[in-house]
Amino acid sequence: MRKPYDFSVLLRGVDFTSRPSRRKPIIIAEGVLNRGPGGGVLNISALRRIESLDGFALAMQEHAGAHRQSVTSVDFPLGMARSAVEWLKWGPSAEQFHKRVRGVSREEFRSAMKRCARALGGEQHRACDRGEANGKGWSAGSISAMHTDFPAVGYMLLEGLPRILDADVSVLPVRRTNSSRVVIEGYSGLVARWLIGNEPYKGGKPASRKARFAARRRMVGMLMSERLRERYGFMVSVTAGDAAACMEDAEGDALDAVLMCVQAAWASGQEGCGVPRGVDEVEGWIVDPETMEHFHRQQLASEEVLLKRVYGVSGGMERQFPQVVAGPGHDCAVVFAESEHVLLKTDQVIERRHFVAGTPVELIARKALARTLSDIAAAAGEPIAALVAAALPDGDARGRELVDAVHAWGRKWKCPVVGGDIARTSGPLALTVSVLGKPATRRGAVLRSGARPGDDLWVTGTLGGSFDKRTGMGKHLTFEPRLAEAKELAKRLDGKLHAMMDLSDGLGRDARRLAEMSGVAIEIDAPRVPRATGVKTWKRAMSDGEDYELLFVTAPGVKLKSLTSGTKVTCIGKVVEYTRGEPRSVALAGRRRIDVSMLGWEHGS
Known about the structure:
Layout: E1 9-15, E2 26-36, E3 39-50, H1 53-61, E4 69-74, H2 82-88, H3 94-102, H4 106-120, E5 130-133, E6 136-139, H5 153-165, E7 170-171, E8 181-185, H6 188-196, H7 209-223, H8 226-232, E9 234-237, H9 240-248, H10 253-268, H11 289-313, H12 317-320, E10 324-326, E11 334-335, E12 343-350, H13 361-378, E13 381-393, H14 399-412, E14 417-425, E15 430-439, E16 456-460, H15 475-478, H16 483-493, E17 497-502, H17 507-518, E18 521-525, H18 538-543, E19 550-554, E20 569-576, E21 585-589, E22 592-595
Parallel strand pairs: 1-4, 3-9, 4-8, 7-8, 13-14, 18-21
Antiparallel strand pairs: 1-2, 2-3, 5-6, 10-11, 12-15, 13-15, 16-19, 16-20, 17-19, 18-20, 21-22
């Protein structure tokens, strides 16, 4: 998704060397995008020469001056192939990788890379270096971050990355901060390839210098032509002096810095600065239109792979689950429901609403399926099969992992996932689960509407504390749907089990809903409400929500302590006649009657 160019951004392209000197400096091209006829114009305002690593560190720490923000593109890897990082035990997180890179000398780094290459059969490459889509190979032409011979790309990472991280900038996708200064990884070879193909334009033996000078001169001209605008959306304007410097520099360093600035300018007009969502933070990403196109080709291919994965992991489902007549692969699934009554339920989880960003995929899949099964349990039902629809953010690479996790949890809870859909979205990750079920006993489905005055109110387990506000983790991701408990209650109590529901929004709010459906009121004995460890007050226990315990109503006089599963059950109140104008659910705390009918969490579930 493209956004409008911000013409107030300072743009910088860095041609880096791990051992800068007066003869071989780091060169930084600086410029801004200005509006021009038919589009933008990248005006290169300076070619800075940095002759030391300390000078480079200071340059990275500079603020954008009169500009609101800056985007800097560097020509060295901001990450390493995950396969290498895992073999080296330098991960698994980006933070751990950065710590190890900071702590090794050049000699130690070189030795580690050589050992790793021998063990893995060669230098490892990242997804942005090379890949395959639809059976066709692709390469950016970039060199592995493990390479320590000429050109010593590995040493560039070793010397450059820590200094960038120390500058307190946002390094995409490696480390995101609130800084207005952004650093991305580019590769000048991709811009050069667009302009002049694979024609060499720098270095080489004396006999080739004339031809390579001509290539540089032609490239400078093409930077100021429609050829560049065709792919990057703008042209470049340079002073005569800087143009001459780019042509006369036989090593191509000045020209490469300008090409890097082109990539920084293009990134400034892209969502996420041109870094696709879901790319590996340990590996990093080369930002360029060509790598973005390759990424999207892989995504299209991966959707076919995902569908094949769905069919693969669900193979033999008909033999494993007798209720499945036909599973994934057909236009629709066919299941056998022997009951006259069928239970149907749909629920969904959405990133940043029902779980925080960064939640492990296994737990996302678990919660999505468990929430829906909790409702099936509340009706004293058991699952027959499920359908799952996933909306994956553009660029999100978690599809395969999500498919595997959903099917694994379905097998665990005897709820085969027999079909669904996968789509891409510009929004957050969303997972929608629909479950088909049947009553677990001859008693039939238990509804919310059967409570009568004089009945007892019960709850399974403990309440409160399901969500850790610091980490976003907690019981709301790991709860067990009370399928076995509900089945046992229906079987043991039969007609004495009058009503039941699951607790998702908090006891106070959910008790009101049950009371409304039954046309009664509910009184909760606050001190008897079972609280989870660390939950100090009954009010918090009743309001936290996402407990996914069973709230059930029995005929008066029923005796229960625990169930076969070991789950504790507690009698916490009574059902009473409803008086018009009075709250549907109240808590009794000493002599006080407290309206708790709105006490809970409203999350749209």
